[in-house]
Amino acid sequence: MSIFYQKTLILIIILALLMASFILLNLNLIELLNLNNWLNLLSFFKEFLRPDLSYEFIRNLFFLALETFSMSVISTFFAFIFAISIMIFSDFKNPLIGLIINSCLNFLRSIPELIWALLLLVAFGLGPFTGTLALFFHTFGILGKLFIDIFKNVPKENKTSLFISGNNKIKIFLYQTFPLIFPQLLNYTLYRWENNIRAASILGIVGAGGLGQILYFNLSLFHYEKVATILIFILIMIFSVDNLSFYIRKRFA
Question: What letter would DSSP give residue 90?
Answer without folding.
Answer: T
